Amino acid sequence: MNNSKKTNIKFVPIFAMLLLILNQILTYSVTPPNSGGQPMRYLLYWLMFLISSIGTNLIVLYLGFTSRQTKNSIKKLSKIYFYLICIGLFGVIFSVVAFKSFASQDLWLLLFPISHNDFPLASSILLWYVFGSLISKYIHKLSQTTMNSILLFIPWLFIFMPFLFGKQLWSIDSGNSFVWVGILFLLGILFGEENILSKIRSKSKIITLVIILLALPLLLKISPLSVPAANLHSRLYSNYSLPMFFISIIIFSLFISFKTIKYSKHKIIKSLPINWLFLSAYFFTQLPTIAYRLSNDLHLKYKISSVKWLLQILIIFLSVVITVFILTFIIEKLSHLAKINKTINNLSISYSDLNRTPYLIKEIFINNWRSLFVILIGLFLTYIQILSVYILTESPFKMSFLKDVITTSSQQILLSTIIFYLFFVLIFGIFNRYWYALIFSTGVFVIISVAEVLKISLRDEPILPADLSMITAMNELLKMVNPIVIIVALIFIIILFVSSILLEKRFNNIYNRSNWKKRVTFILIPLIVFSGSFFINHNNSLPKIVFKAFGVQPLFYDQTGGARVNGPVIQFINNIDTKIMNKPAGYSKKNIEKIMKKYDNSAKNINKTRKSSLSNQTIIFTLSESFSDPNRVPNLKVSPNPIPYLTKLKKQTSSGLMLSSGYGGGTANMEWQSLTGLSLSNLSPTLPTPYTQLVPSQKISPAFTDLFDSKIAIHPFNASLYNRINVFKKFGFNKFYYDGSKYKLTYKKRIGSSPYISDESAYKNTLKIINQKHSGSRFIQLSTMQNHMPFTDYYPNAKSFKISGSAFSKDSKSSIETYSQGLNYTDKSLKKFITKINKIHKPVTIVWYGDHLASLYNKDSMSKYGIPLHETDYFIYNNQTKKITHSNKVVSPYSFSALALKADNIKVSPYYALITNVTEDLPAMTIDPTSSQSNSLNGSNIFVSENGKKIKSSSLTKKQKQLLHDYRLIQYDLTAGKQYSAHWAQQKIK
């Protein structure tokens, strides 16, 4: 006989909910204390954890106990799913609003809840709950003796025997196990039928419970725990162990035994869906996004006082409890709204429907085949697009490509399919014809695929928004394409057009056309979604958060690689939101002409004291990959000094520190600044990589190379990254030596097992070019690769440097040792290089600099040490004058051209008169290095003094502010404006 109506059993879900929430917080947000270091906190933590772990046991016992009262439990599956959707969406919204991120998995599990096993307990309970009333009815018919026998048999076989033998006899390895849930569910049914728990006196239960609870601390001392809570599997402590089973049964029986508590009859309290509270709490705390936040953003610090520790646990606990109560109340109210309630009822199934499962699946397919067909076509087209890029960029073809596309780009394929589907919906809203919309959408995506293949084949670059401006030059574009391709494309378009007409006529009557309200909705929703493309690179914007959730990597430094990983459509969208630069006040042709005239005069004044010209001069810009003195890194000591020669050389020549705009990356941005004289910090945050996002769209790209007769670039690596081949061509380089180019690198030696060509070989290649006969001025851009990440144990004697300090983690120590050895090799190679340069009987000037620090110092706070973690070494050396024009000067890369001309006492052109003024009269400007733990965004412009301190722009003098404004106007004109000053910036020195 079931006496649940006369007991406090209805409060079990609330109590179980509270225990579950506490258990999840202790699992995710708290690191288990050590029994030796914090004995009292250790006992308190594990006592709370073990007791709270029985919350899941109690709810299963409760469901079994009340199963006879639960009518048509299978019909509640649709409402359970409604709860999951609501709570899942709340989790996504919470993560987006509070933490500016979520994962596509958070949406996927709403459609396929059991696909990732995120809700193991719910999955185990489901079948027992659905068929609980049937099982309960069957057990009810059994005799008293049979039920008593089962009550003895189940605990003995499934609980006592595994405890005695210490083996998992029935594959019960967690409290979520289907077998364990079944045991508790059946016991709950039997407890509801028999009054066995009620027959035991409450006093005896309480005494037994107290004894077990007092024994737990003793057990914890005798057999201490040292595993993470999530990995706890023990016959003493797991919630499926004998002690925890006893505690669960005793507490459950106490709810049955005590007299009914009269609770408030207030309308809100009465309307609170008690039975749904545990479900809400379970779904909420098990959501991957919530579990992640509890584990990371809300994780308690280990070294805090016990009082503060308990207080923080209590605060998180109460916050989650309140959230669950509010969520449950709101969801329950929503479920009673007419339309939602009708949908829930329509989706509900009965036991009789199980016999009709094949027919139901068929009916679902028939009702939704058109949408499914669109999705399948979208998946297929996106897969083919990405595979095509793979084949073009990863030759020769391998069968593994077919699998690689799915394994590396599954999320991006899904996102592209969503974009395809929305595009179809938009076209369908316009035409109100299914086949017209489908064929048109398919045609557009096929054309994109073909255009992508052609563009990559011709330019080694995917389709970008800048290419749309070339539509006006369609005749010239078509001349570049094989006529056969054009003919095939035209035939394909005709076939699509005819097919759409025939299909529309043939299947015209198999679907209902939409009314005007639906059509407006079909048009508006995709347009609203697609408008997000214009904010895709805005920091913390919703479109950027969504793209990040689907694993989209913009890869602006490697656009073709981006198309290979993300697909052509997504990579195109990545490049839509690229505002180049904010327009400075007063931008006009008239004002630009005034500035040009102003610095025409400035050039004349500077040149009065300059005696030399560029004729027969050789200037080398040497970018040394990841080079920076590690002993300048805060909280780090490397001994002996790995770069003794450079340390000495910097004292003998013009030298100082360069402000890098990157940390661990951004090489091309330093190149761009040094070659153009423009500052990255003036650009928009949506344009992080000028080489791929800016230079291709510029009609004219003024650069330092414009001043020279001969321009040569050397990069001892492949040139696929950063669009260097096309950029250097636009900058006027005559030759580009790289690994795989038609201009062969003579020296390609590597050190140890390093995959990168050594700096010694890079310098030898440079010397070979310097010694070649030539007339006139010459510029060489050398970008080395030896010290590029990762810093694996490449070198045979990397352990010769001792690393100490608190700037790095244990995992980084070996990498820093390898890195330091690499610097030492560079230092020795540099000494040989300078020695050879000194023997050359013609003027050679070297501007040598490190592009950024290696990202190895993960224990140093960027907010505290941002500036020193972005300072690299540089020097300017001339083999004939050896004159020191400055020392210990802090500069940015855009100043190197002006500093090189000054070091050689070379006259300047008007544009470089402007750069000279900016270099000499303004503090060095850069991106704010303290605004991010890695690479900061453009636009966060700061100034840095000679002693490495930030300077506010408001502290600049009136003259400095005017100079800065002139500089920004010219930069805007050259990059985002009308280019009134482009030819002026390109003119040679007179």
Could you please describe the fold and organization of this structure?
- The protein has 990 residues and is of the alpha/beta class.
- It has 3 domains: 4-347, no CATH class; 357-574, no CATH class; 613-904, Alkaline Phosphatase, subunit A.
- It is built from 38 helices and 13 strands.
- The protein has an 8-stranded mixed sheet with strand order 5-4-6-1-8-9-3-10, with helices on both faces. A 3-stranded antiparallel sheet has the order 11-12-13, with no helix packed on it.
- Strand 4 (710-715), helix 31 and strand 5 form a beta-alpha-beta unit.
- Helix 19 (400-431) packs across helix 20.
- The mean pLDDT is 87.
- One of its GO terms (cellular component) is plasma membrane.
- It is found in: Cell membrane.
- The chain crosses the membrane at residues 43-65, 80-99, 119-139, 146-165, 177-194, 206-222, 242-261, 273-294, 309-331, 372-393, 413-431, 438-457, 477-498, 519-536.
Question: Could you name the key traits of this structure?
Answer:
alpha/beta, 54% helix, 3-stranded antiparallel sheet, 990 residues, 8-stranded mixed sheet, transmembrane, Alkaline Phosphatase, subunit A, Sulfatase N-terminal domain-containing protein, Alkaline_phosphatase_core_sf, globular, Sulfatase_N, 3 domains, 38 helices, cell membrane
Compact description:
It is found in: Cell membrane. This protein has 990 residues and is α/β, with parallel strands linked by helices. The mean pLDDT is 87.
Count, helices: 38
Q: What is the β-strand count?
A: 13
Low-confidence stretches: none
Order of neighbouring strands in the sheet with most strands = 5-4-6-1-8-9-3-10
The span between the termini is 107 Å
The largest β sheet comes out as: 8 strands, mixed
Q: Which class do the helix and strand fractions yield?
A: alpha/beta
Portion in beta strands: 5-15%
Question: Share of helix among residues?
Answer: 40-55%
Shape: globular
In round numbers, the mean pLDDT is: 87
- Radius of gyration using CA atoms only: 36 Å
Structural domain count: 3
InterPro entries: Alkaline_phosphatase_core_sf, OpgB/LTA_synthase_biosynth, Sulfatase_N
Domain Sulfatase N-terminal: 617-895
Transmembrane segments: 43-65, 80-99, 119-139, 146-165, 177-194, 206-222, 242-261, 273-294, 309-331, 372-393, 413-431, 438-457, 477-498, 519-536
Membrane topology: Multi-pass membrane protein
